[in-house]
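Reopening this ticket.

The earlier resolution said the output was attached, but the attachment link was broken on my side. Pasting everything inline this time so it's all in one place.
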Amino acid sequence: MKGKALGMIETVGLVPAVEAGDVAVKTADVSILGSQAVGGGLVSVLMTGDVAAVKASVDAGSTAAARIGAVHSVTVIARTAEGLEEVLVREGARPKSVPAGNLGAGPKGGAERDNAHASSQGPLSDSGDGRIDAGEPVAPDMADLKKKKVTALRRLARGIPGFPLARGEIKYARKKDLLDAFVQYMTTSES
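Inline output:
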């Protein structure tokens, strides 16, 4: 894959991702590398080919996906660096590690973190530095939550399945509203 273009379309949900991949392949001469559930309902579709073909496919695929769902982000890397393929999805296999500077990289690599998240049904714990660790589910302590900034509370809330506020509400929620929602979540999860 070295030297080829890489296109990525990240959607909210699987159905728009499948639509994006289907339209992308039908638009130009690209190969789908695979798809990956990123977490939080996000699904990424990765494709490779010549730069012009990948750009056309990403544009067409993201437009088609936006018609039936939400597109979170798109990007085209014109010439991939050596070693990048080691962190990408390969036929049926999940990446073994994510470079340290990438989003979500923490004590566990991205794929390991996603797998741990998929198996846990409870809330996630915040490591304090803004990253969410998905190991054993840990109920957040109200004293700790009150010390956090509103951005850290929003990030933590988005990572909790079944949180009382919708994703759009979390984005604009004030600290008081988020703390009230955490109290509501903890009381309903204890019942």
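Reporter confirms the inline version is readable. The radius of gyration is 18 Å. Confidence is low (pLDDT under 50) at residues 91-138.
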